[in-house]
Amino acid sequence: MLIDYDKYSIRIDNKRILIKSASIHYFRLPGQNLWRDRLNKLKAAGYNTVDIYFCWGYHSKEPGKYDFTGLRDVRALLDIAAELGLFVIARPGPYINAEVSLGGLPKWLLNQPNIILRNRKDGNFVYSEVFMKYLHEWYSRIIPIINEYHNIIAFQIENEYFTNEAEPDYMQELYDLARSMGIKVPIFHNDILGVGLYSDIVNIYAFDNYPSINMSFDWRNFPDTFGVLDNAEENIAGCLETSPLFVAELQAGWYDKWLGFGYDHIRKLFGREHINIATKTALSQGITMFNHYMGCGGTSWDQIPSSEVYTSYDFAAPVSEIGIPQENYYKAKEINYFLKAFNLSSTVLITKGCDVTGSESENIFTVLRNDNINNCKWLFIRNLNKQKAQFSLSDGNNVSVKPFDMKILPVNLKLKACNIDFSGMSIFARVEHENAEILLMLLEADNELKLSGFNNIKSSFAIEKTGNQAIIKSENLENLTSCELTNNNKTTKIIFLDEITADKTWIIEDKILIGAEFLTDNSEKAAFSSETEVKILSIKEDMEFKTKQIPSPIEVKLPEMEKWLCYNASPEIDPAYDCSSWNFLNDGKFDCVTNRIYDDYIWYKGIFKGYLNEIEINAKHCYAIYLNGKQIFYYDCLVYEEGSEIPENITFNIDKRFLNEKGPNELTILVQNLGFDRGFQNELIIPRGVLSLKTFPQKEIKWQIRGGLTPVIEEWTESVSENLESASDNSYIKMIKSGFEFEYSNNIYNPLLLDMSECPFEKADIFLNGNMIGRHWKNKSPQKLFYLPEDLLENKNMVSLVIWDVKPENFLEQGCENPKSCVKIKIRNIKLFELGLVRELL
Amino acid sequence: MNALPSFILKKIYQQGSLQATQEGVSFRLKNILGPGIVTGINFIKINDQIYNSSVIKIIKSGVSVLAGQITCEDPLLCKLNEDITCVIQNCIELQGGLNKIMVELISKDVGKVSVSVSDTV
User: Fold this and answer.
1) Pick from B115, B116, B113: nearest CA to B40
2) Which residues of A are catalytic?
3) Least-confidence region, from A501-515, A615-629, A634-648
4) What is the DSSP string of A699-745?
5) SS3 A516
6) How many angstroms away from the CA of A623 is the closest CA of chain B?
7) N- to C-terminal Cα distance for chain B?
């Protein structure tokens, strides 16, 4: 592919293309079937590009070792994108943020002597040869893979990078490195500040735009929310006048955090309006490259997440974590379909702030642009008022805009058999074949469509005529009413759709399908969740809808887990436990980095003699301390203040009841960390585990250390379970497990979830067939449903919960000894979709 | 690490705006980043003297508000490119030559932000 660009747009093989992209995190979608499913859904929504972060740490667990197989086989992902005809924006970091642990850097980097991650310390630029050496290694592994694919259209270096004085050295070296390794496509960086940072180094200037990132505020109450986008052409486009303006991350949702609001709340906040306004406002500025971040949600399984986020990374994205399109998906589809119908990749500003008079003038945003390709004008009009805005434009046309809505309206648009002089109703999509076309328009109340330039018009509704102009008023229209205009041998049929119908309307080449909830398998299959009357129209045939009845989906019995087994899972707590194989602390320091232990659980054991009054400890994030096998303290310091971790030194008194003042005493500490910081606002190297520990009086203790919980490091073998059963009668960590059967079907889409809403335990790690798929933490996370990713399911499955209820009294009250009566965990679904072959509908 | 780099903070502060007034001392900031919501102004430090929010007045679009009244519930909304004048209502003797100024505020979106600059009278 030949890729070049000018100030208007990117050009691919000499054709101007408006880049409609959406992000996915393949590392949060464990399995190639998931990749295929999600990319199919993006394609069906009209996206022409997928944006992919390549996560260094996901592929490299040890220095010099890289895994690009199975769940990490990025070639398979790129193959799917190529097969679906999607362009790819490649973003290999090295730092990606993405709310992943260490921002995507491998943990082993932390132990490299003299390394300064990202060449930045305390915000200042500090060049690190060691970091650059390993970065070179990463690039030398990932870039050759990227270079194998001809559908890559842009390449990003670093991510949201800045230093106090914006030194260019690091970015210039990354640029040169990428070029020297064969990257031929335009290179960009995404400027989080939107101030033209590094615009003199890159080919295309890109910036991030997140108008709403504090979920305790409703953006609808702040009319200036979209202010940066409103002024992007004036303020930002000049940063690099030779390139199109690219919004590398255009907000399509937001992530939730521990102690957060929950995705139901976030989805309500964004609604279908936010993505519509953000995208159309960007388009109003002549922006011809946008990337919805995120396009699909994902699951922060295994040790992927940064400490800030819980398991679900639904992101309130157009495609939810479990792969079900949401209302912002349908809105994105609407915009993408329009942009496919009319290529807006070369437009010029005519006026900003058109003269409007009417019910509202405050919080109304208007832009008029000339379209060099379609030889028309487009009026961008936005209403950020809580009331409908109805007003007249200076040219005498009337427009009505719903609260928090934005429209792109045609002015003097030439169609095959007529002209649209003006429309207050938006164009949804267009299907063309030779001299015929069908224009799908949204039936938007209190608006009118003015047509001219036709010979004849046929309709089933009233049309007003003034001179040569026909005026169609929305009040005379019903859903799916249409009119047909002819001019010589050309035909334009206009069909009006209400919003609900538009959501379920799909363009498949030259056909229109109404009724499906989504399309998959490269639009070869359509999904239905209830009895539906499907309408199909082919422009090649008679341009009339045919109907077909789709019955209700078959009922599918959900898997059940009945027989739960319970095991003690922390023999380490027992004073008799043999820890002779454990390492002694490195350099007398407790933290995970010094000791090179990167498991999410870390054990410490030490022996002292005599009495002890107090212990002062600082550890991340959750920990319990046992004295001679009895829990004497527990704490969780999951405390963030305005995005920064707060260190917490805790001092507590020793419970003397468990102290053996004459003989040796054993202290055991178990610390669970929830991942490293993502390193955006904070430094990257913030160690985990015990960070400091003092005893009073001071004792000489030779501490030993080991990572991992017994059931995890023993990889779930049955024999270990038996061993565990007899290993300790004083365990506060339990493992419970149960099996279920699952039958995969090509004909249904029925994502399954583990429902933990009635789980009596405070805290548990959830494993599916040995893969950690979630962290349940009742009082710290709103997440109660945990996705069982299809690719991790087998015919016979095992769900295991490692329960760490730090309050032993709670644990006993729950009757864990009798798991059948206390484990109220079940498998459920949200919705079942039956998948029908589209060709059989047509 | 500050959520915003120094080179941006220097652009936010309007160089040459530091002046002694009848009320005390004033200087100007310009919001070049984007619409923002300030939920608190912790303090302003001039040279080594800290002035808390009770003696700080903020003037924006001709309207003044005491910094102590800016809270999460009653935030200060700052438009893109809007000028903001900070007045410290106190007897302050500015130094001849360079004066060090530091403003610490809480932004709704990025948390605590410290703007540290120098200006001459």
Assistant:
1) B113
2) 160, 249
3) A634-648
4) -----EEEES-HHHHTTT-HHHHHHHHHH-SS-SEEEEEEEEE----
5) coil
6) 27
7) 29
**B1 found inside a domain:** no
Please compute the mean of the pLDDT values over residues A161-189 and round it to a whole number. 97
Tokens of A343: 């290529």
User: In this structure, is residue B52 part of a structural domain?
Assistant: yes
Asked if A227's CB is within 8 angstroms of B35's CB, the reply is yes
> Given pLDDT bands bounded at 50, 70 and 90, which one contains residue A647?
confident
As for the ipTM of the complex, it is 0.85
**Closest-approach residue (CA) in chain B for A191:** B33
Contacts of A187 (CB under 8 A, 6+ apart): A154, A155, A156, A157, A175, A178, A179, A202, A203, A204
Best of A118, A125, A193 to mutate (most B CBs within 10 Å, chain B): A193
- Quick check: bond before A294 cis, omega within 30? yes
- From the CA atom positions of chain A, what is the Rg in Å? 30
pLDDT tens digits, one per residue of A306-360? 999 999 999 999 999 999 999 999 999 999 999 999 999 999 999 988 777 766 6
Contact A644 B6 (CB under 8 A): no
Is B110–A643 a contact, with Cβ atoms under 8 angstroms apart? yes
In CATH terms, the fold of domain A347-507 is: beta-galactosidase, domain 2 (2.102.20)
How much is the pLDDT for A714? 66
What residues of chain B lie within 8 A of the CB of A683, using their CB? Answer: 1
Q: Where are chain A's structural domains?
A: 3-341, 347-507, 571-708, 712-831
- Tokens for A538, please give them: 């082919």
The per-residue pLDDT for A33 is 97
Q: What pTM was estimated for this model as a whole? A: 0.95
Subunit contact B1:A683, Cβ cutoff 8 A: yes
- Per the document, the length of chain A is 842
User: Using one digit for the tens of pLDDT, what is the confidence trace for A420-474?
Assistant: 999 999 999 999 999 999 999 999 999 999 999 999 999 999 999 999 999 999 9
**Thinking of the domain A571-708, which architecture would CATH place it in?**
Sandwich (2.60)
Query: 3.30.565.10, 3.20.20.80, 3.40.50.2300, 3.10.20.30: which CATH number matches A3-341?
Result: 3.20.20.80
CB proximity list for A272: less than 8 A, separation 6 or greater: A327, A328, A330, A331
**pLDDT of res. A646:** 75
Q: Between A642, A644, A682, which is nearest B106 by CB?
A: A642
Q: Residue B28 is part of a domain; what is its CATH number? A: 2.60.40
**A193–B110 CB contact, under 8 Å:** no
Q: Is the pLDDT of residue A725 over 50?
A: no
- B80–A224: do the CB atoms touch at under 8 Å? yes
Query: What confidence score (pLDDT) does residue A817 get?
Result: 53
Contacting B with CB below 8 Å, chain A residues are 122-123, 162-166, 193-195, 211, 213-214, 217, 222, 224-228, 230-231, 235, 641-644, 681-683
Rounded (10°) CA dihedral A594, A597, A599, A603 = -90
- Report helix angle A327-341 to A273-284, nearest 10: 30
Q: Please tell me the predicted confidence (pLDDT) of residue A597.
A: 95
Residue of chain B whose alpha carbon sits nearest to that of A210: B109
C-beta atoms surrounding A42 within 10 Å: 31
pLDDT at A724 (0 to 100): 43
CB spacing of B79 vs A224 below 8 angstroms: yes
Residue to test with chain B: of A171, A214, A228, A646, most B Cβ within 10 A: A214
Per-residue pLDDT tens digits of chain B, which is 121 residues long: 567 888 888 889 999 999 999 889 999 999 988 888 899 999 999 998 999 999 999 999 889 999 999 998 899 989 888 999 999 997 778 888 899 999 999 888 778 888 888 998 8
Average pLDDT over residues A350-378: 88
* Nearest-by-CA chain B residue for A213: B109
Chain A / chain B CB contacts < 8 angstroms:
70
Two domains, one topology: A3-341 and A571-708? no
